[in-house]
């Protein structure tokens, strides 16, 4: 298998990953920010909302609860297994939901189709972030609002840092580097520049610190190892036992946060901007 194939495999959210992601990483990493993001959007009372990189629908679920019923909501993701999982989870709780598999860098929507675009923890994975932001702007109406979030640096997020460092101890060479991707956009000046260069105005970047939770250190470790593409990289290398890695990650988490009812600090950067 060539390096390009290995890299592609190591970035896919497929197989059992959607379920593990939603069940274990949802409350640990994503649900607190989803509720906060949905409240931000609801205060603008938008008419047509596009969610990009929806994953398993964690923000989607919060939007369904927060937005007025008359607001049209389009939920999209590049990854079909993640989108299917989200659709099944949310079901028919809302009448005006359109589900679309979509590449964020080439959105299948006409110009000025929405008055709000939201993307939580997705931009970090775009091969061309500038193009993604330009597409966000293209599909927004004039005066429309953009909301997106990225993780702050890995040093500001101890759970991700623990997972990254502990997994690396099992590989003498070429350790999986997945966690450097989601936590690789913590530079506020660069983030502002990217958003400005895409044509947005009234850019506000807010560091937001919230608390994630998990029933146990073991559950958190299962999510951190099996709930994202790092599991693909581990399996591709074929030199370490997955369950042993989970036990090791759980042990470090337990030493830092306790064995049960974990409460963990999280820090993200939340960006809002307007299309002029």
Can you tell me about this structure?
It is a single chain. The protein is an alpha/beta fold and 276 residues long. The protein has a domain at 3-153 and 181-213 and 266-274: Vaccinia Virus protein VP39 (Rossmann fold, 3-Layer(aba) Sandwich). The chain contains ten helices and seven strands. Strands 3-2-1-4-5-7-6 form a seven-stranded mixed sheet. Helix 3 links the parallel strand 1 (48-51) and strand 2. The longest helix is centred in the N-terminal third of the chain and has 26 residues, at 17-42. The protein is globular, with a radius of gyration of 18 Å.
Helix count, per DSSP?
Answer: 10
How much is the average pLDDT? Answer: 93
N-to-C series of helices and strands: HHEHEHEEHEHHEHHHE
CATH architecture of one domain, by name, is 3-Layer(aba) Sandwich
How many strand units?
Answer: 7
């Amino acid at each position: 298998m060539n390096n390009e194939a290995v890299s592609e495999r190591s970035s896919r959210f497929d197989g059992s990953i959607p379920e593990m992601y939603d069940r274990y990483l949802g409350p640990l990493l994503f649900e607190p920010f989803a509720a906060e993001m949905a409240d931000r959007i609801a205060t603008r009372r938008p008419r047509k909302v596009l969610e990009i990189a929806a994953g398993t629908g964690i923000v989607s679920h919060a939007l369904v609860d927060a937005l007025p019923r008359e607001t049209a909501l389009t939920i999209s993701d590049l990854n079909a297994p993640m989108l299917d999982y989200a659709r099944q989870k949310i079901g028919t709780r809302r009448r005006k939901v359109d589900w679309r598999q979509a590449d964020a860098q080439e959105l299948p929507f006409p110009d000025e189709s929405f008055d709000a675009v939201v993307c939580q923890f997705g931009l970090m994975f775009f091969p061309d972030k500038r193009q993604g932001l330009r597409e966000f702007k293209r599909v927004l109406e004039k005066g429309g609002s953009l909301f997106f979030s990225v993780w702050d640096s890995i040093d500001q997020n101890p759970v991700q840092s623990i997972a990254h460092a502990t997994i690396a101890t099992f590989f003498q060479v070429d350790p999986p580097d997945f966690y450097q991707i989601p936590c690789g956009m913590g530079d506020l000046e660069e983030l502002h520049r990217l958003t400005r260069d895409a044509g947005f105005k009234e850019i506000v970047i807010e560091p937001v610190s919230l608390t994630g939770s998990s029933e146990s250190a073991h559950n958190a470790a299962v999510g951190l190892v099996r709930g994202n593409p790092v599991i693909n990289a581990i399996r591709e290398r074929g030199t370490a036992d997955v369950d042993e890695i989970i036990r090791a990650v759980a042990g470090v988490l337990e030493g830092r946060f306790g064995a049960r009812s974990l409460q963990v600090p999280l820090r993200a950067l939340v960006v809002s901007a307007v299309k002029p």
